[in-house]
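Reopening this ticket.

The earlier resolution said the output was attached, but the attachment link was broken on my side. Pasting everything inline this time so it's all in one place.
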Amino acid sequence: MSEHTILEAPERVLSTLNKDGSRRWLRPRLSKGPFYHQRFWVAWALILLFTLVPILRMNGKPLMLFDLAAREFTLFGSTFHATDTLLLMLLMVGILLSVFLVTALLGRVWCGWACPQTVYMEYLFRPIERLIEGDHLSQHEMDQSGAMGGRRLLKQAIFIIVSAFLANTFLAYWVGWDTLLTWITGSPLEHWGGFLVMAITTVLMFADFAWFREQTCIVACPYGRFQSVLLDKHSLIVAYDARRGEPRAKLRKEDTPRAGGACVDCNHCVVVCPTGIDIREGLQMECIHCTQCIDACDSIMERIGQPKGLIRYGSQHEMASGERRFLRPRVLLYPLAILLIFGLLVYNLARREDSVVTILRGLGTPYSEMAGGEVGNTIRIKVDNQRGVDRAYWIRLVEPAQGRTIIPSNPLPVPAKSMATGTVVVIVPAELFARPGAAAIFEVSDSLGFTTRVRTALLGPDAAGATR
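Inline output:
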């Protein structure tokens, strides 16, 4: 055997690969049935929502902003900081459990109806492609010719423009609409870093929708691989009713009555699939539940006078036995866990102070021995002002009673939604360290009614001169 011989796989490994390993470009035929039109309105409502969310405001804050530089995350008028570990954990666990519940009930409805990858691919980029290049047959002819004609070049140019718009929309979630507007209206030389980020994001968007396309769902996204754990045999999926459809047989005029099952093996469900699978082979990782196969099959069933629903929303159990079961343990346990998690989140949000005070040790030596038998500790008090107004915080030593303080800046000014650190020198008698456990308690307050007390250990020499 020649060392250059290419061995073909006995079957296709991925729906987007040919047996010889080359890329199989998918050009799905469009089937405009009832589900397509329902998804059309949902998709464009979501596109509008995705675009407006970073612009809209609630309680004077962006509706959604993930400011990594400031370590702040704003969701629906509430701002979470890096110090809000418990709140962020409860939020993420609640979202994760909600995904589990939706998947257990409705399968991959997120993938087919709401995922930005599907929404933009199927209702923005593919329509542009069909408008310029023609239907799926015309696109296949272009693929076979291998030539980059004028229509395909025009399509790529429009894809780049749309990708730039989406890149800016995406960046607004991370830098804020006001900052993005400044970048857009100003010279790139004034904010070359932001411009570079926008340019890279545009290239990534273009590569995703112009090149990777359905491979993002099949290869990159892990959600499809999780479905074996998240789904059960009673979860709602897009499924083929093999009991009714098999055995398949081509439709012939002389068949009266028809021999075989309801499936006429027309292959329409395959040519419309955006991930290139055959739904008749059962539940598959590549299926994103886009319902195109349902619309295509229903149109054929209607044309040949057969009842619709050969491919439909149903569960594996229903397709095998004809019975539908809604209630099961996970469908009951997930909502209870979600209610508990979000209940704790709301409770902790209600109790959360609008200022966070953190005690830090001073830099340098742990303590200093002073004249007159006194010991000094340098303490740093960091205050995080989470309100939208400037505030001033008073710092007062509560304990020990025999101690005194030197505070260069008191009150400590902290701008709106900012942090500031004040330095406090605590001076106490040396005999305080004769017993372990010496500590200082500070009271931090402002004129708006905020008051809290924080405690920190004090360091000093014991009777033998060692640090305590």
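Reporter confirms the inline version is readable. Residues 34-83+115-213 form one domain. DSSP finds 15 helices and 16 strands in the chain.
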